[in-house]
Amino acid sequence: MVVISDLAIQGAQMLLVLTLAPLLTGFVRKVKAQLLRRRGASIVQPYRDLLRLLRKEVILADTASWLFRVIPYLIFATTWVAAALVPTFATSLLFSWSADLIAIIALLGSARFFLALAGMDVGTSFGGIGSSREVMIATLAEPAMIMIVFTLALLAGSTQLSNVASFMLSSSVGVRVSLALALVALVMVAIAENARIPIDNPATHLELTMVHEAMVLEYSGRHLAMIELAASLKLLLYISLIGCVFLPWGLALPGAGAAAQVAAVAVYIAKLAAGGFLLALFETTVAKMRVFRVPDFLGAALMLGLLGTLLLFVSRSL
Amino acid sequence: MVAIVGLWCVAALLGIAGFGIVAGNWSQGSRLTYGATAATSTVALITAVLQLVGGTGVPPSIVLPLGLPWIGAHFRMDALSAFFLVVINLGGAAASLYGVGYGQHEDEPQRVLPFFPAFLAGMNLVILADDAFSFLLSWEFMSLASWALVMAHHHERDNIRAGYVYIVMACFGTLALLLAFGLLAGPEGGYAFASIRVHQLSPLLAGFVLGLALLGAGSKAGLVPLHVWLPLAHPAAPSHVSASMSGVMTKVAVYGFIRIVFDLLGPTAWWWSFPILAIGSGTAVLGVLYALMETDLKRVLAYSTIENIGLIFVGLGLALAFRANSLPAASALALTAALFHAFNHALFKSALFFGAGAVLTATGERQMERLGGLIHRMPTTSVVVLVACVAISALPPLNGFASEWLAFQAILLSPQLPLWGLKLLVPAVGALLALSAALAAACFVRVFGIVFLGRPRSPAAERAAEVDRWSLSAMVILAGLCILAGILPGFVIDAIAPVAQSLVGSRMPEQAGMSWLSIIPVAESRSSYNGLLVFCFIAASASLAAYVIHRLASHALRRAPAWDCGFPQSSPATQYTASSFAQPIRRVFGGYAFQARERVEMPPPGNLGPARFQVDLRDLAWELIYTPITNSVSVAAERLNRLQFLTIRQYLSLVFSALVFLLLVLALWS
């Protein structure tokens, strides 16, 4: 019985993240437009974009290989699997033990590895510039993320996300310096990983500062739809991760009834909306950085994460 | 019995080496030699696997009346030896199979054929040896055989230098090991490992032995700053030998270190883990940074070996730290992570060197800047290299991630360590480990993206063709093993368990019985990872997505010129190159690691001369350590040179004063 309900929750979560991801992207865009006193596109515009892309033919560069056509599905699959393993509204996911937080981060690393390869496949200068900058950003963002994971794992005594969330819900957490450091670092990493301002601008083309958009420049049609969906999923994943670890209130615990689950979904959507709003607000207040300022930004995140871990090595109560 | 089979395999390999001397002149001699080597290595591999998995009780041993008369030659195959014999003979068998095809392209086969089986035999003997004399003899035999292989293409100037640096470093390493065994055996000279284990050393002497083992085994394994020979020598040899040297011989060095420090040296002192952790993590980061700056394909792979050796030594250092503080379970976890990574590295690094050899055969190029687009012309090779690149970048669900994950789990156990120094050192080591993993991913995006993707950058790359079936089969087997070990890591961990049991007195929990074949290093509430399920999930959701889209959405497809923001450039020279790809990382890290300087020389307005861009990288290991040493040696040699031109009277007085001095010393001593 428990297995069946866990399976149902797991399935519901996989569908939920998939359907909510474009909505979140649309919401962030809408809020940003409103803050800039523009009217902005409808909040469901990303769904329309995806449908339009799916209906279009793919225009493939002459020099593209088979890998270029496989990669969109791989990126989508790894990101979806990673997003399915982060507790969104309930902690009792059937497969949460198959990959812990380190593995989830590494799954996103796999997606990035393939995306960077896709950027180099056609053999254009824009693809190369995007891939080369993406891996540079990743070399700092990934260790920073691992240090954040260490901080959480040392506190909760587990790298399993559902256990971390349960620990955060318990009364033994309290206010801790290390958690504050980890939160700041995680937000910084999340901004970098999702190619948001000030690291990268998701709305630009034809600019030498672009990173993510440069890698996917040669994609079109259904392939581009997959990549766009994966990017939305990744944004949703990071907001869910921050919500699950630092704002675990409202998560349905194992054994909760159906009504509690529905309430948890509502709380989760409210968390996503708050996260999206804060992101849009932040993006409108800062300017984009030069590419070679990015290492300073991420280096700070890495140092914060390392400091958090160090504090916990020194004393469990910090 | 098992030890005898192992020794017969060594004898067979030596016999094949003898056959190889004459076989070089026949048309089929090369195939026969490599085929026989592959068969023998497979027999040795099966023996070792059986011993590792099924061997219980007293390890099989044998004493032969060879070597020093009062010692004899002892051989023994305990769990540690069996594990490393698996790694060596797996790599050896794959390299021989690859050699059946690749060896055909050799211009002077008689320079490779005799030495390759001898090299494998030497490595097997090092692992089997159970006394200091046979160990050192086999070690030196292995070094000399590999030196001969490095010098196989001796017409190239660089190779002569590589061989020279290699032989000097190899002799230095053996010297350090010789002194280490001398201290271990003590004044009574009990050189058999059994009597060394009984012999207790004072803490000071034990510390010396640790330092000497670190110098001796570390120079063979390529620890920074003893690594300088490795990126010269490994790429100079033919590619299947490079694979054996990088994938396998470095593991023999790791074995030597484990044998001395974990087995022979007795109880662990509290401070031993500090230098090993510091050197290991530094080696990992510096190795991969060197690899990112390099543009010669085989040298990139050699530098990446240095990185992986660093990761293995970090695991060993953690195991020592836990062992010194009597935390056997955590120590077993760290040791398992290190050994698992050693096994993995043998798989994917051999596959990558085979791939580099295939590229070399197909294009005649090692320089990444002149390659590109090979995925269209070498489909199987590119798939194998892609699998190996994903594996070495520690990405799930392949095997590199499994061992890296275990290492992270071991680090998360280290707050239990009572020492303050370790509490501060271990988080930094963890950050460096994560940094090196991320840099490795960047490095292998670069390798695969520049060599196999994009458009060909030279006519040779344009004309490339897939290599022969023997080479391909060896590569495919290794890539398959990478995937298998990645999705079923529990079986590898269980196979390593007897080694951990014998060295640190504990083992990781039995993994084969875990539900759904997941791996659980400590407890399920703490952490678990299931490569099989992750692999199935990715495969299922990717196929599902592809199916749904091809069923419901458009599947029209049109080929057209690349878009490139509306300004596609026809010349392949406009693509990103290997050096331009690494430029952002050079800007971020190169200033610290290599004191990198970039200079742009712009001609003044009106001058039509080309603008120039120059990058200066400094290898600090050479500048700070080796150049002073070589300078002082040549200065000393210059001074001592005068001794060659003395008169007979002066020589006689020199001999006489030396005699007086020695007698004086003797008189004062007693």
Automatic annotation (TrEMBL), chain A:
Subcellular localization(s) per the UniProt record: Membrane
GO cellular component: a single term: plasma membrane
UniProt topology in membrane: Multi-pass membrane protein
Record-linked Pfam families: NADHdh (PF00146)
Superkingdom classification of source: Bacteria
Primary localization: membrane
GO MF annotations in UniProt: lyase activity
Keywords, alphabetical: Lyase, Membrane, Transmembrane, Transmembrane helix
Protein name per Swiss-Prot or TrEMBL: Formate hydrogenlyase subunit 4
Organism the protein comes from: Bosea psychrotolerans
Automatic annotation (TrEMBL), chain B:
Recorded GO MF terms: lyase activity; NADH dehydrogenase (ubiquinone) activity; oxidoreductase activity
Domain NADH:quinone oxidoreductase/Mrp antiporter transmembrane: 129-419
Keyword annotations of the record: Cell membrane, Lyase, Membrane, Oxidoreductase, Transmembrane, Transmembrane helix
A Pfam family reported for this protein in Swiss-Prot or TrEMBL: Proton_antipo_M
Membrane topology: Multi-pass membrane protein
InterPro entries from the UniProt entry: ComplexI-like_HydComp, NADH_UbQ_OxRdtase, ND/Mrp_TM
GO biological process: ATP synthesis coupled electron transport
Record's GO cellular component terms: plasma membrane
Listed transmembrane segments: 6-26, 38-59, 79-100, 112-129, 135-152, 164-185, 205-229, 241-258, 270-293, 300-322, 342-362, 383-408, 428-453, 474-500, 531-549, 651-669
Location in the cell: Cell membrane; Membrane
Protein name: Formate hydrogenlyase subunit 3/multisubunit Na+/H+ antiporter MnhD subunit
Species of the source: Bosea psychrotolerans
